[in-house]
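In response to the reviewer comment on reproducibility (Comment 2.3), we provide here a single inverse folding case reported in full, input and output, so that an independent group could reproduce the run without further information from us. The C-alpha cells appear first.
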C-alpha cells in the first residue's frame, strides 16, 4: 500500500471529490482516479459509493480513513525526525506575525544560527489565523502568534506580553478617522474593532493593508488610526509623526508566544529559538 495512494484517498475525502482533490494535489483527475482504483483493487473492496458525479464514503472507506490519517502522520513525524538528525543539519520552518518578526526574530535567529550553524532557516510572515493553519497542516514547524491559544493539537508557550496602543497622526482625531487594519485573521484586528465599538468612533469604515510599514506610513500621514504594539511604534521611522495613547489592560495586553504540534518530535533548535526570544524580551535589571 503506497503512501501516495493513501494521501490521495485522504485528499479526495477532505476536498469532497476527484476534481477538487486533483487541484489540491496539483495533478490531473485521471491520476487521482487511477490511484483510488488501484487502492480498491489492492484492498478488495469499494472505498466510495458513486452517486452520479458525486462520491460518498463507504463503510470500508471510513475505516481506511482513520488508518490513513495515522499512517500519514507517522510518515510526517519520521520525515521530521530524519530531517533533524544531529540538530545541526536540516531545515527549520518558522512562521511569525509581521510585528513579531520585526521586533523579536532577528536576534533570536542569530542565536539559532550560532547554536545550530548547519540549520537551514526558513521564515514566513502571515496573520495569526493563517500561521495556525500552516502549523496544523505541517507546513511550518512553529509559529509566533498572539494568544492565548487553546487547541487540542497545539502547544502554546507564552514568551512575551505585548502592549497594544492606539496611534494616530499628530494633530489628527481618531474619532473622525477610519480604522486601518491588517487583513482578516490578524489577532490585533479583532481588538481594534472591539475598541472602535467601545469608544464610539464616528467613522465605522476600515481600510486593510498587508504590511506593517504600509499601515504605519498611512497612519503617520493622517489617513486613519490603528492599534499596534508600543515597541513597534517607538522603533518605527514614523514615530515622530505619531501620537501614542494607552489602552485599558483587557485590550492592551496580548500574550504572545510559540505554537507547535503536540505530537511533533522534539527539536533542540526550537528550544534555542524560544529561549532566545524570551531572553531578549525579559526586562533588564
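Designed residues, in position order:
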Amino acid at each position: 500500500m503506497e503512501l501516495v495512494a493513501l494521501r490521495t484517498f485522504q485528499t479526495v475525502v477532505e476536498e469532497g471529490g476527484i476534481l477538487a482533490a486533483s487541484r489540491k494535489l496539483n495533478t490531473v483527475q485521471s491520476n487521482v482516479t487511477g490511484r483510488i482504483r488501484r487502492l480498491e483493487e489492492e484492498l478488495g473492496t469499494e472505498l466510495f459509493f458513486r452517486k452520479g458525479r458525486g462520491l460518498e464514503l463507504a463503510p470500508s472507506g471510513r475505516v481506511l480513513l482513520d488508518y490513513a490519517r495515522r499512517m500519514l502522520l507517522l510518515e510526517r513525524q519520521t520525515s521530521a525526525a530524519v530531517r533533524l538528525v544531529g540538530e545541526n543539519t536540516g531545515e527549520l520552518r518558522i512562521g511569525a506575525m509581521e510585528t513579531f518578526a520585526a521586533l523579536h526574530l532577528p536576534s533570536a535567529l542569530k542565536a539559532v544560527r550560532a547554536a545550530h550553524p548547519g540549520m537551514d532557516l526558513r521564515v514566513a510572515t502571515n496573520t495569526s489565523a493563517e500561521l495556525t493553519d500552516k502549523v496544523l497542516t505541517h507546513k511550518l514547524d512553529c509559529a509566533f502568534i498572539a494568544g492565548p491559544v487553546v487547541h487540542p493539537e497545539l502547544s502554546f508557550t507564552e514568551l512575551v506580553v505585548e502592549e497594544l496602543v492606539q496611534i494616530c497622526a499628530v494633530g489628527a482625531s481618531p474619532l473622525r478617522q477610519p480604522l486601518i487594519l491588517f487583513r482578516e485573521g490578524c489577532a490585533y484586528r479583532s481588538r481594534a474593532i472591539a475598541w472602535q465599538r467601545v469608544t464610539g468612533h464616528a467613522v465605522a469604515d476600515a481600510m486593510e493593508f498587508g504590511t506593517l510599514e504600509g499601515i504605519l506610513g498611512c497612519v503617520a500621514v493622517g489617513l486613519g488610526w490603528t492599534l499596534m504594539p508600543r515597541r513597534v511604534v517607538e522603533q518605527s521611522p514614523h514615530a515622530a509623526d505619531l501620537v501614542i495613547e494607552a489602552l485599558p489592560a483587557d485590550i492592551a495586553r496580548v500574550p504572545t508566544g510559540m505554537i507547535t504540534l503536540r505530537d511533533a518530535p522534539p527539536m533542540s533548535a526550537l528550544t534555542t529559538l524560544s529561549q532566545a526570544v524570551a531572553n531578549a524580551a525579559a526586562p533588564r535589571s
